[in-house]
Amino acid sequence: MKKQVKVKPNSKQQKIEESEDGTLIVHLKSPPVDGKANKELIDLLAKRFNVPKSKIIIKSGLSSKNKAIEIDTN
Q1: Would you kindly state where each structural domain of the chain is located, as residue ranges?
Q2: Percentage, residues of the chain above pLDDT 90
Q3: Interval 27-63: pLDDT, tens
Q4: What is the 3-state secondary structure (H, E, C) of 23-53?
Q5: How far is it, in rounded angstroms, from Cα 62 to Cα 73?
Q6: Which of 4, 9, 28, 36 is the most core-located residue (most Cβ within 10 A)?
Q7: Residue 63 CA to its chain's centroid (Å)
């Protein structure tokens, strides 16, 4: 399953919202430094979709707020 994700780092609380076009808007507590926000994003998505963290891959946008994520649900 492929998802478009918009990340909002340095938020006061963690939460995941879904916009009208299906893009996930993910609020993260971590700053976008040393991959901390990406790690938190993967942790949060793994819990949300009930898959191991190893099944989530950031396909593009590693250093961007807009990311393409692939989740292997098999």
Answers
A1: 2-71
A2: 97
A3: 999 999 999 999 999 999 999 999 999 999 999 999 9
A4: CEEEECCCCCCCCHHHHHHHHHHHHHHCCCH
A5: 21
A6: 28
A7: 12
